Amino acid sequence: MSEKLVIRKEATLEELDSILDAVEDFGEREDWPPAVLFKAKLAIEEMGINVAKHGRVDKAPHIEITVTSDPDALTIGIEDDGRPFDPLHDAPPPDLTSPIEDRPIGGLGIHFVREMMDEMTYRHEDGKNCLALTLNRVE
Question: How many whole angstroms separate alpha carbon 115 and alpha carbon 107?
């Protein structure tokens, strides 16, 4: 049976902490393995930071996080009304070869999320960025 958590907040760094706390509580209630909980929270944190820092048009965007927990997988929906941005195609590939002190700051978060998730899709619909992430519960 599926259980669902839905959170809608202003997309600010301050609100992101309460979102992550709610996801952690939900994951613990749903008995997610520790590695799955870590990956889910990291993905939400990284994508939420991007919305908070880069999504602003004339006011802080709103973000809605929907987490659906099934026995085999969890699905994370991240919707925001900020500036359109497709992390699958608009994010430049990170520099993974230069010495770390020579690399520009930023760009690794989306890379990490893409590597951790089993599936990741994006669409822009009704003025919203809609990102869907799927993470298998079994490693």
Answer: 13
Neighbours of 115 (CB within 10 A): 9
What global pTM score does this model have? 0.88
The residue with tokens 């004339």 is 58
- How far is 61 from 68, CA to CA, in rounded Å? 23
Nearest in space to 56 (alpha carbons), one of 20, 85, 93, 18: 85
Report which of 64, 65, 107, 66 is spatially closest to residue 87, judged by C-alpha positions.
107
| CA torsion through residues 20, 25, 29, 33, sign | positive
Domain-wise residue ranges, the chain: 3-136
Q: In what helix (H) or strand (E) does residue 103 lie, and over which residues does it extend?
A: none
CATH topology of domain 3-136: Heat Shock Protein 90 (3.30.565)
φ and ψ at 62, to 5 degrees? Answer: -100, 150
pLDDT in tens, 19-50: 999 999 999 999 999 999 999 999 999 999 98
Q: Under a CB-based contact definition with an 8 Å cutoff, are residues 111 and 117 in contact? A: no
